[in-house]
Amino acid sequence: MKRRVLLFLEFMMFATMSVSASTMISANNPNIHYFGRWDFSDSLAPSHSWPGVCVYAEFEGTSIGVVMNDNFCYYNVIIDDTLTSVFHPTSASVSSYIVASNLADRPHTILLTKRNETTGAKYSFHGFILENGKNLLKLPEKPTRKIEFIGDSYTSASGNEWIDNTKPMEKEAQCTNIYEGFGPITARHYGAQVQMTSQGGYGLLLDWQGNYSNNIPDKFDRTLCYWNLPKWDFEQWIPNLVVICLGLNDCSGFNGYNQTVGRDSTLMFKQKYHDFIAKIRTVYPGVKILAVAADHNDWIRQTIADVVTEEYASGKNDVHFTSFPKYGTGAYVFGDHPTVATHHLIADRLISAIDTLDAWNPSVIDTLPPRMVNLPVSPFTVYDTAFVLKFETDSYAIVHYSQQDIPFNQMELTCTTTGRRNHSTLLYGRHRTMSTYYFRAVDIHGNEMKTSAVVQFQVDTLQYSIPWTSERYQDAGWFTGTAPLGTLNDGVNKTVFSRVTAAYLRKKFSLDSVKVQGFALTMKGHDGAVIYINGDEVYRINMYPDSAIGYQSLAMGVPSTSTQVMGFNSKNGLLNKLKAGENLIAVEIHPSDPTRDIAFDAKFYDAQNKNYFHLGSNWNYSARGSIPVSQIGEKTSGVPETQSSAPPARFQLLQNYPNPFNPSTTITYILDRDGCVHIDIYNSLGQNVSTFVNDHETAGIHSVSFDGRQFSSGVYFYRLISGEKYDVKKMLFIK
After folding, report:
1. Which domains does the chain have, with CATH numbers?
2. Which pick of 148, 162, 229, 397 has the fewest CB atoms within 10 Å?
3. pTM higher than 0.85
4. What is the rounded CA–CA span in Å between residue 543 and residue 591?
5. pLDDT tens-digit profile of 655-699?
C-alpha cells in the first residue's frame, strides 16, 4: 500500500506545457474513444462528473499532453497498458499539461482514467497535444461486451489506496483509485467496456444519514451526477449486464447497524429496489441484472436476496443474486472501505457469479415487431402548415415514413428524433387539404413492422390550438382553491376535490426582474408531477423521464420525501424560462397508484428568499377526470383565400441522419418554391470536395443519400443553395 502512495506522490504534479510547436487535437476528433457518462453538449469541451470516466487514443511521437478545465480530479495515465503516472490538473481554467514524455518514437496508446468521485462540480476535457507533425491513429472498435456498475462508495473504491482506517476528507480524491475497484477489475477480466454510476454516501432509498432525497435511482437518468439536465440518453450505451451494489448506506440511514430495521422501512426499500429493476429493464432491453449484497449485516443480505426471490416469483428470471463477506483484519482502510487487495477479492466473487449467468446474451430474445403508441387519433386538425408530430414506440426503434404505403427500407424519410422510444419529426400539409403519412419502425433486434401506422390530418391556418399549459389559455371556468389541494380531507385547511387519476393546476405570478442569480420552486406532496413554465415543460418529479404523459400516466413510485426543490439557475438553463412581468406555472399531478389520494402545495422564491407565492396560496385547478381540452383561437389573417393552397412558406435544411455516420447518411431539405438546387460538401478546411446535388426541383420535401466511403474520417459541412437562400450544417463521418 505504501508503495502505491509513493508512486502517486511522485507523479501528481505536472508542468504547464508549451504549445508553440505542437499539434492540437480537438476533443471531437473521431479517433478518441470516450467511456462512461460524458456530456457532449459542447463537443469541443465534453464534461463529466461521474467517477471512472475514461479517454482512450492511439498516437504517434515521444510525448503527449492534455488540455483540461479541472483543478480537482486525479487521473491514471496508462501508456501502452502500463501505469506511468498519476496526473492531477491544477487550474480552474482551460490549461495544457504534459502527461507523458521521453517515449520511444513509435506508435503508443494512452488510457486516461479518472480515479475519484467529484462533489457538486463538473470538469471538461478539451483534447490532446502531440508533437508537431504527429497525429492520432485510427482506433479499433470498442469492445462489444458492456457492464454498468451502480453503487455507493464501495463501488467508487473510496480511499482504497489509503494506509490506515483514518478518514482525512481532504485526502479522499488523492487516495482513491476506482481503476483498482471491483467494478473496473471485473470488467477488465471480461475485456468489457465499463460504466460507473456510483456515488459515495448515497443509497438505493436513502443516504447514510437518513436523507431520502440522496439516492442513486433518482440520479440514474443524469448525464452529470449533480445536474438534472441534460438527461442521459440510455439508448446510446446499452449494457449486457448491470451490477447493483447498494444497501450499506440504506442500512446506516435506517440505523440498522444498531437496531432491527422496521418492517415498513424494509418494505419501502424492497419496493424501491423492484421499481429500480423495472426502470433498468425499460431502458436496457434484454439486460441481465446482478443484485449484490455486502454481507456486513443480516438485513442487507436477506432483504436483497428476498427482492431477487420475489422477482423470480413474478416470472422474471433476468435478476440474479450474489454477496461478498466482511473480510478480516487489514482488509479495510479510510473509514472501513476496502483496500485494493480487498477489491480484488470482491471482484473474484463477482466473476464467479457472472460466469454462471450467460451474461453476454440477452435475457429475452425479442421477436415481436415494435408497436407505435401515443399517436394522435386520425384524422385530426392542426393549425399550421408545419407541425411537430411526437409519439413513442414500445421499444428502441428507428422510424421511417413516407406519403406512400411502402416497406420500411423504401421509405425516403426518417424521423428527426429517432433510435429510441421517443420519436418526433416535422410534418407538412396544405390549408384545407387532408394529408396522409405512413410510418414504419425497425427495433434494435431487427424486428420490422409489416403494416404501416397511418397519420392523417388536415390544416386550418385560420385557427390555432391553445393547450392548458399556455399563457393564452382561459382558465376562468376552472375551480379555484386554497393549497394544499387534494382528494383526502385530513381535517386541516385543505381544498378537497373528488378522486381522479390526474389533476391539473395553474397559477400566474409576477417578477420585477429576472436578474436575480437564482429562483427555487418548492413542491410538497407524495405524488409525481410535471411542471411547465410559460408553456414549456421544465421539470419532472417522480415521473418517467422518457415517456409521453397522458391522463392515465402514473408516477414511478411513492417518493421518498414529500418535499422537492427545483432550482432555476444558469447551470440548468431554466433561468431563461422566466421573464420580467407575468409568468405562468402549470403543474399536472399523478399518483403512483390510481387508488391513492392526490395532495399538492407549492411556493416560489428567489435567492434572497423573497416569496412570489407562498405555501397555501390560491390555485386554479381542473379535476374532471380527463386532460383539459385545448381551446381554439382565431387568427387574424390577411392572406387571400386564393393563396390558401400554396406550399408551406419554409425553406429548411435538416440535420443529416444518422450523424455521425458510416458509410452513408440521409440529407433532407424543404424547398418553399420550385427552382435550381445545389448541395455542396466541404471539408473542415473549407475546401469543396463534392457538388452533391445540382438540379431543378419542385417545392416540397426532398431527401438524398450521401455516401462518404471515398472520403477520410472527419468533420464535413453540407450547404444547400436555392435561389437567394442557403443554409449550412455540420456532419461527422467515422470509418
Report:
1. 2-131 (2.60.120.260), 146-354 (3.40.50.1110), 367-459 (2.60.40.10), 479-629 (2.60.120), 649-735 (2.60.40.1930)
2. 229
3. no
4. 10
5. 888 888 888 888 888 888 877 788 888 877 667 788 778 777 878
